């Protein structure tokens, strides 16, 4: 009844969620804009290039040397950003491993021998940076409400929340968030154990643990890893560990090994238009655009630098 | 500084999200209950056994014959539930394949040859069952608000939403939801292409496409599949397809091949207590229990029948 071509085509509409600026002619101006329209019409000034000192590149020790690119959020976790830079610079994670992949939750890496590896210039632990002052941030509020916070939005591309009454702002635990594992004490983490969210947003962790950034590229190298069968998704045998070849700061790599990525700015008219296309899906397939979007379901587009 | 044992232990608290009733002594009554406490204290009457005519078992054609168990939701999609039973009974999916795994979105299966496979007793298409009447449902409302709907909660273990003004109720696109792919028309799907949500809840699909159930067991066999590199996560080469050995109704299997699962009832005092432990995380690790939970972040526990 349906050709595969047609099936694929309609599936595009059926389940459109791609964040990339895929080819698509701009809609006639009579029609409301779609997400693709907005991205296609974006100007170079709508995009920002992350600082090389804020980009971490995790390279797995597999045949392809799969790479995961993360952006640090020093505006929210300045001490942890500094410490992660220090850990990267002393090659702390080289040869360590991903030890935990918990279904619908997190991928976690660190020292399988239990933090035995020496830290040199980096610190082992830091005070938690669970939230910060709400002032002094370029906060683009989302018009929709949130289940967990009085207000949500985006700061420099990072999904975030704000409580003006308390005067606090914090990063939200959305898919792809990069966090810093800790033990019982608020100050018991420092960055030698890191995790990335791979399931539905565990927002109950917000303000309980430090988020230090988010993955910009290569999530599929983490999210498609075999789930650990031990308690909480820990791998039960050392041979199951996913070895880490290196974790480096882009600034420390030769130009040829860096990644040239751009992130859609979240403080522009284009951003506002983009958000509206996520709140009201205007692709022909949609029958009932919801008119709402949750902070973790908007998606901040990332592209290869043109 | 931390032994691996300690690290694992504390990580348990750090990132507790397991839905299973894992061993854990009940807390002294002075302390607020944790999720484990509530499950440990549950009675057999707090659990229900899904009907064998509502359980679909997808068996992948890999070495292990990995199985994914799904429960149909005839209260919300009666015609699609019937049609999926008919498709299972005519062995429609045997030898077909998973053709699409889109990062942070869906896994989709069907006929790679584009619905060429004949249907016999089943129907190729059906009118969409995107929502139903809000009345006549055993709806356990969640006390928290929702970004997308006036009210959310659970019906027989399925995350659902309700709009009393419109008199509508519908299933929510949470992680593990089972949906029925469609083309442009609201009546263009029928069940020959199915998808399961593997990422952050794509709630913008609510009321735009038919949800027919949810995965109870075996999500990891779908969520850890390699992502497709084609548009929208389609596999680009036939050799990448993940072959399906069979999709059967549990009722049609010999007793030895069935699965004995139980789902926590969502209309009991235990359920209400469970939800409170998800809204207010009382495990010692938490510093700031949020006091909120979104409908896709509560989790309806599933266990092996004792």
TrEMBL record, chains A, B:
Residues 55-249 form the PPIase cyclophilin-type domain. The lineage of its organism: Bacteria, Pseudomonadati, Pseudomonadota, Gammaproteobacteria, Nevskiales. One of its GO terms (molecular function) is peptidyl-prolyl cis-trans isomerase activity. Keywords: Isomerase, Rotamase, Signal. PANTHER family: PEPTIDYL-PROLYL CIS-TRANS ISOMERASE CYP38, CHLOROPLASTIC. It comes from Hydrocarboniphaga effusa AP103. Pfam families: Pro_isomerase. Its EC number is 5.2.1.8. Residues 1-25 form the signal peptide. InterPro entries: Cyclophilin-like_dom_sf (IPR029000), Cyclophilin-type_PPIase_dom (IPR002130), E_coli_cyclophilin_A-like (IPR044665). Gene3D superfamilies: Cyclophilin-like. This is peptidylprolyl isomerase. PROSITE patterns: CSA_PPIASE_2.
């Amino acid at each position: 009844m349906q050709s595969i071509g047609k099936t694929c085509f309609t599936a595009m509409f059926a389940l459109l969620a791609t964040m990339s600026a895929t080819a698509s002619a701009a809609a006639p101006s009579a029609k409301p804009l779609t997400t693709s329209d907005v991205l296609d019409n974006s100007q170079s000034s709508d995009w920002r290039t992350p600082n090389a000192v804020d980009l971490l590149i995790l390279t797995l020790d597999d045949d392809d040397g799969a790479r995961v690119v993360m952006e640090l959020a020093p505006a929210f976790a300045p001490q942890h950003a500094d410490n992660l830079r220090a850990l990267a610079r002393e090659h702390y994670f080289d040869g360590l491993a991903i030890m935990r992949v918990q279904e619908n939750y997190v991928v976690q890496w660190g020292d399988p021998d239990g933090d035995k590896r020496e830290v040199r210039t980096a610190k082992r632990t830091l005070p938690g940076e669970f939230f910060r002052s709400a002032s002094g941030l370029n906060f683009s509020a989302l018009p929709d409400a949130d289940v967990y916070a009085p207000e949500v939005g985006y700061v420099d591309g990072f999904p975030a929340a704000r409580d003006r009454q308390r005067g606090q702002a914090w990063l939200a635990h959305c898919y792809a968030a990069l966090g810093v594992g800790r033990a019982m004490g608020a100050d018991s983490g420092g960055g030698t154990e890191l995790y990335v969210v791979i399931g539905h947003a565990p927002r109950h962790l917000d303000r309980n643990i430090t988020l230090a950034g988010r993955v910009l590229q290569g999530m599929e190298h983490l999210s498609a890893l075999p789930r650990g069968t031990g308690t909480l998704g820990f791998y039960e045998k050392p041979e199951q560990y996913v070895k880490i070849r290196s974790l480096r700061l882009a600034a420390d790599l030769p130009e040829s090994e860096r990644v040239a990525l751009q992130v859609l700015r979240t403080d522009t008219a284009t951003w506002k238009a983009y958000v509206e296309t996520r709140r009201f899906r205007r692709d022909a397939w949609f029958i009932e655009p919801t008119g709402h979007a949750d902070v973790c379901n908007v998606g901040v587009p990332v592209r290869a630098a043109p």
